[in-house]
Design brief:
It is a single chain. By secondary structure, the protein is α+β, with helices and mostly antiparallel strands. Helix content is 36%, strand content 16%.
Length: 311
């Protein structure tokens, strides 16, 4: 964990404890439940001579500010304050900042020894779960001025939901592949759907295929022949076709999207790379979707992106 200053929250542990406490309150947990969870999760930090006081100071301060200071948390924080907290470390490592730390701890002691404010009302997250079923196909008409400019006006973008995932703070959103019609005609069966072109949504350089998992490539996979395993395109890139639609509410979905059909047995793209960590599948919000998907089609499918011109 990192520390970049002597104030109470200029420390990763302190910030994480504060943010997690507030986050879990918004998820409907009680102060007691959250405290028990944090004590368990940060057991290693609590037992550390440097991080232990930081944990209790941040938790006590956060609870006091929200009107939820628990007696045991106050007891632990005051006990560390009575021991001098982590001030001795600062006096050795950075005497100038030790003065700042001492002031921060004095302010915390004064705060904890005054009555806490009334319990503050915390609004709960309003989490959304997309109602689309696996296999559902929805159509989005390309009818913007940008679509006209790119000679795509009147065609349809088709979303095919293949699975779902979670998005902070807990929304359930669809993962889709996207196709585009050749004209204004929609497919009437899975055979017609299969004949339509997939829109490539991103690409990965071959040498970055394991990033950001550990930043390294296994020795046995460095050889050029391993490109066959990953199905690179003619430029040596790994094409991606999956897309996360960042739906945060039903109202966020454009009104002009409509249901087409449900196709379960669909032919996937012949070459497709999926990031090794699902969170790195490209995600797109609706307010930029129209331009993003048009740029993706023109850039990747039509090979208009600069990356192809300089390869």
């Amino acid at each position: 964990m990192g520390t970049w200053g002597a104030k109470l929250y200029q420390d990763d542990v302190a910030q994480d404890v504060r943010d997690q406490f507030k986050d879990l309150l918004r998820r409907g947990k009680t102060a007691e439940e959250i405290t028990n969870n944090l004590v368990s999760e940060y057991a290693h930090s609590i037992n550390d001579q440097d991080d232990g006081p930081v944990f209790w100071f941040a938790l006590a301060d956060t609870q006091w500010e929200l009107g939820r200071l628990l007696p045991e948390v106050k007891k632990q924080a005051v006990a560390w304050l009575d021991k001098g907290g982590d001030l001795a470390k600062w006096q050795v490592e950075n005497p100038k900042l030790a003065v700042v730390r001492e002031k921060a701890l004095d302010e915390l002691r004064r705060k904890l020894n005054t009555p806490q404010p009334p319990e503050k009302k915390i609004s709960q997250y309003r989490l959304y779960k997309c109602e689309w079923k696996i296999g559902d196909v929805f159509a989005y008409p390309l009818e913007s001025n940008y679509a006209k400019e790119k000679y795509l006006f009147g065609r349809y973008v088709l979303f095919h939901k293949i699975r779902e995932t979670s998005s902070w703070p807990g929304h359930i959103i669809p993962i889709v592949r996207v196709k585009i019609t050749k004209d204004e005609k929609l497919p009437s069966c899975v055979t017609q759907f299969d004949k339509l072109e997939y829109i490539q949504t991103a690409l990965t350089r071959f040498e970055d295929r394991f990033l950001p998992i550990d930043g390294r490539r296994p020795n046995e996979d460095i050889a050029e022949k391993s490109k066959k395993k990953y199905e690179v395109d003619e430029f040596g890139f790994l094409p991606q076709y999956k897309l996360k639609l960042l739906n945060t509410s039903k109202k966020s979905i454009p009104n002009n999207i409509f249901y087409v059909s449900n196709y379960l047995n669909v032919e996937p793209p012949t070459k497709e790379f999926t990031p090794h960590d699902e969170q790195y599948i490209y995600g797109c919000s609706w307010n930029i979707f129209d331009k993003m998907i048009i740029d993706a089609y023109c850039g990747y499918n039509l090979r208009q992106a600069k990356i192809y011109q300089t390869t």
